[in-house]
Design brief:
Layout (H helix, E strand, L loop, with lengths): L1 E3 L2 E13 L2 E12 L3 E6 L2 E3 L11 E5 L5 E7 L2 E4 L2 E4 L2 E4 L4 E4 L6 E7 L5 E2 L7 E2 L2 E5 L2 E6 L19 E9 L7 H19 L6 E6 L5 E6 L21 H13 L2 H18 L4 H24 L5 H6 L2 H11 L11 H9 L4 H13 L15 H21 L5 E2 L11 E2 L11
Antiparallel strand pairs: 1-2, 2-3, 2-6, 3-4, 4-10, 5-9, 6-7, 7-10, 8-9, 11-19, 12-17, 12-18, 13-14, 15-16, 16-17, 18-19, 20-21
Length: about 425
């Protein structure tokens, strides 16, 4: 891969570009930047007929071995010459990543992982390993390691402050057989969601390339899914006990590849990441956390287990939605003692954790006209603890849904390197 001052050049090839009634084929440079995404720049050419391309036109772009995709023009530098307008186009895809592939089957895929941060994994009876882990599941096998393993070259042109590549990844089938580019895309989307859940910020595979059995490149993705700047934040995964990822991943992959669960889990993990980085503020984070929990409750109680009708669910108070979800997932309703401010306030006001989360969220959405007491102040420890409790509920609910029975970092009383068994491990290890 080449570098340029405007990003990492991932391809230089002939592309077909359409707008209005015009079709041109131009050699284009496709570059990628972790912060800004994909940019497509055409070589200059002479335009002899009107109308000229404009920023308002809708563009369609197609590589020789790919499907057409929509794009927007961001710049159209042009100048007049004796033979006509000398112009070029600078385009961005409407959606990323863009899948470029040939008809050949894929045997392996390599990719880069941004902003995941360092980790240590250690299996029983083995020495600790830094920044390496194998994640098998659902017939797939992911290996995550250091960037140097895949010889991806100098990636600095695609990096900037808070946006850096930290690991490489490979994807193969457990049975060693071929797979389609579309199957690879679904699996890569799942690993992006999983890494996001592990790290609490949006992470997506980038610089994706697929190869056939002879090692020829037969697939490429331009761009990536959503990526957030690097920040340190608490999640269920302790970075010094990262081997637990391998026990969570098989069930997680099964759920995310299941059409019944894919969308709700992706939605909840997106909201989880947005709240975990504090981008929405602790008050806004509470609103998103409750929305995620209620989405899971609806899917589990109404659509999956059918223990409630849609009408019956809607008639229940929001706190009961959360109570039923926690009960089904074997998660304690009592407020953990580690949430000291919330624990003290609950002794005077609320019966359990779900009621505390809902009532404090309601104060955010419908603030009282006259605040009284520290628990009404958004900056107080009560609001902070309510967010921690809601995030803890969401982490445990997802871990329960994917059938995890191992050890996790409890954010309500967490120290680096300290993990404990999930609440249901001892008495109810079965999937729900």
């Amino acid at each position: 891969m080449d570098t340029s001052s405007k990003g990492l050049v991932v391809s230089e090839e002939l592309l077909e570009i359409r707008w209005n009634q015009t079709v041109v084929q131009r050699v284009c440079r496709v570059s990628y930047d972790l912060r800004d995404g994909v940019r497509i720049s055409t070589e200059p050419w002479i335009i002899t007929s009107e109308p000229l391309p404009s920023l308002d036109d809708r563009y369609s772009v197609r590589a020789q071995n790919g499907e057409p995709f929509e794009a927007f023009a961001t710049r159209i530098p042009r100048s007049w010459s004796e033979t006509g307008w000398r112009a070029e186009l600078q385009l961005v895809p409407k959606l990323e990543p863009v899948l470029i592939h040939k008809a050949s089957p894929v045997r392996s895929v390599k990719f880069a992982i941004p902003n995941f941060g360092h980790f240590i994994s250690q299996r029983p009876g083995h020495r600790a390993i830094r920044n390496h882990i194998d994640l098998p599941g659902g017939g797939w096998s992911f290996h995550i390691g250091l960037l140097g393993e895949l010889e991806l070259g100098d990636l600095s042109a695609a990096e900037s402050y808070s946006f850096t590549f930290t690991h490489s990844g490979t994807l193969t089938r457990d049975d060693g057989l071929d797979f389609t580019p579309l199957e690879a895309r679904h699996a890569l989307a799942a690993i992006g969601d999983f890494l996001t859940f592990c790290r609490g910020r949006l992470i997506s595979p980038a610089l994706v390339e697929g190869f056939d059995a002879e090692g020829h490149k037969v697939m490429q993705e331009w761009g990536s899914g959503r990526i957030e700047p690097y920040t340190e934040c608490a999640t269920w995964l302790d970075r010094n006990q990262a081997q637990e990822m391998a026990y969570v991943f098989p069930g997680f992959l099964k759920r995310t590849l299941d059409p019944e669960w894919r969308e709700v889990l992706r939605e909840c993990i997106y909201w989880y990441s947005r709240t975990n980085t504090a981008a929405a503020g602790v008050d806004g984070a509470l609103v998103l956390i409750q929305a995620a929990l209620e989405s899971l409750a609806w899917r589990l109680l109404v659509q999956h287990h059918k223990v409630l009708s849609a009408h019956g669910f809607e008639k229940l108070p929001a706190a009961d939605h959360l109570r039923l979800l926690m009960d089904r997932c074997s998660i304690p309703l009592t407020i953990p003692e580690g949430l000291e401010a919330l624990h003290r306030a609950a002794a005077r006001t609320w019966s359990d954790g779900p009621e505390a989360v809902v009532e404090i969220r309601n104060r955010v959405v419908h603030p009282p006209k006259k605040a009284s007491g520290s628990s009404n102040k958004k900056g107080s420890g009560v609001y902070w603890d309510a967010w921690r409790l809601g995030a803890w509920y969401l982490e445990l609910a997802i871990l329960r849904l994917v059938g995890f029975n191992g050890k996790y970092a409890n954010r309500t009383n967490k120290h680096l390197g300290s993990v404990e068994a999930v609440p249901w491990a001892a008495f109810d290890p079965a999937n729900i």
